[in-house]
Amino acid sequence: MFVGMDFGTTNSAVAVSGPERATEVIRFATSSGPASTLRSVLAFDKAHRDAHKRIQPLVGHDAIDTYLHGDGECRFLQSFKSYLTSRSFSSTAILGTTYSLEDMVALIVGHLRRAAEGGGSRIERVVAGRPVRFVAEGGEEEDDYATGRLIEAFAKAGIGEVVFEFEPIAAAYYYESTLDHDQTVLVADFGGGTSDFCLIRLGPGRARLGRPEESIIGTAGVGIAGDAFDRRIVEHGLSGHFGKNTTYDSGGKILPMPAWVYAKLERWHHVAFLNTPQTLRLLRDLQRHVEHPDQVEQLLALIEYNLGYHLYRAVEQAKLELSLAGEALFRFDHDPVTVTRRITRTEFEGWIGKELAAIESCVEGLLDSTATPTAKVDRVFLTGGSSLVPAVRAIFARRFGEDRISSGGEFISVASGLAQRAREVFTA
Questions:
Q1: For residues 62 and 30, what is the distance between their CA atoms, to the nearest angstrom?
Q2: Does residue 81 fall inside a structural domain?
Q3: Judging by beta carbons within 10 Å of its beta carbon (0-12, 13-18, 19+), is residue 185 exposed, middle or buried?
């Protein structure tokens, strides 16, 4: 059995390729039915302990259910893949126990491994996905550092041999299974944290190459994707409700609210970091001097009631609706916080203009660096959640024409392709 693992910023997936070359995406049980992806989240709840009275970490859908419905003290973590390049984030204390970032990744990977094993033989080697570029917040590339941390995390999860493959190349393998003739394909994979691209020759002819990797023409990537789109909705569409645009009187000087508070708000999993006595005292003090104290009261309630995840889900739903219609009615009603706002697709596309430009520039750079004229690209294959955003698809429609665009497997193409790649790697 050959295994491909896609550990993602927002969702993870695992697929296996069996003796008959058939590839199966493993499904996970959830309260709403089987799912082909696992949310890349962890929960640490005081009420969930093992036989030795130690807190038992919860993964994926179990973590979400406990966070939403549990009665005990709970820490909820998401998007920690984004910190693989951070040399300052080595570990964190959670309810009295210290976890390294590698420990947290290992909890997700271990869950994927056990799901793929399904009670059968133990899995000790996999092909795993990785972005084309691991980019730190400062813009520098940190490929070796990030992959080193992943190797350690996989080892902690019981997987001693891991071979990495670029995620868009894995998606290319998935797309290739539909071909009966050779094509030059631009694959665009949009994840939660990165957008990655690959120019590759696919089809029956690739199998005749002595080294299949010779079919790769070029790769490129940029650290922008779905999470960045969510942040822009919060920044431009919602932060004003929570006092971002209000001012306060500081001894006769009119000053804006602290920008760092709203930077945390834009990353929902950072909202919990605002729930400290020092920050709450600061906000309570500012509330007495602001132009709109009711807005700061809404911010305080969001923090104190730990509603960051709920806000994120509402943002995610609005983004989905904007992919299907020209406008969406954003609704967030978690007493005592209530937000209702109509958002148009035109507004949203304006908010993410810089991100769209960066994605388009990355694609142009790949074509230029490989000296590939637009006319030489037979097909464009779009995959990943943000490929459903019309403004993202329009980048490729303008350059290549709508008739050359294909899409599919938005959440499972990478895992499926990784399993197919595992067959090549481990039978070579």
A1: 8
A2: yes
A3: buried
Contacts of 294 (CB under 8 A, 6+ apart): none
Which domain range does residue 61 map to? Answer: 2-167+417-427
The CATH number that applies at residue 119 is: 3.30.420.40
The DSSP secondary-structure symbol of 216 reads E
Q: Is residue 99 in a domain?
A: yes
CA distance 26 to 20: 17
Per-residue pLDDT of the chain (428 residues; tens, 9 = 90+): 899 999 999 899 999 998 777 899 999 998 889 999 999 999 999 888 888 888 999 999 999 999 888 777 788 888 889 889 999 889 988 888 999 999 999 999 999 999 999 878 899 999 999 999 887 666 567 889 999 999 999 999 999 999 999 999 999 999 998 888 999 999 999 988 889 999 999 998 876 655 556 789 999 999 898 999 999 999 999 999 999 999 999 989 999 999 999 999 998 778 878 989 999 999 999 999 999 999 999 999 999 988 988 998 999 999 999 999 999 999 999 999 999 999 999 999 999 999 999 999 999 999 999 999 999 999 999 999 999 999 999 999 999 999 999 999 999 999 999 999 999 899 86
Number of domains within the chain: 1
Instruction: Name every residue whose Cβ is closer than 8 Å to that of residue 393 and which is 6 or more positions away in sequence.
Output: 382, 387, 405, 407
Closest CA to 408 of 179, 182, 116: 179
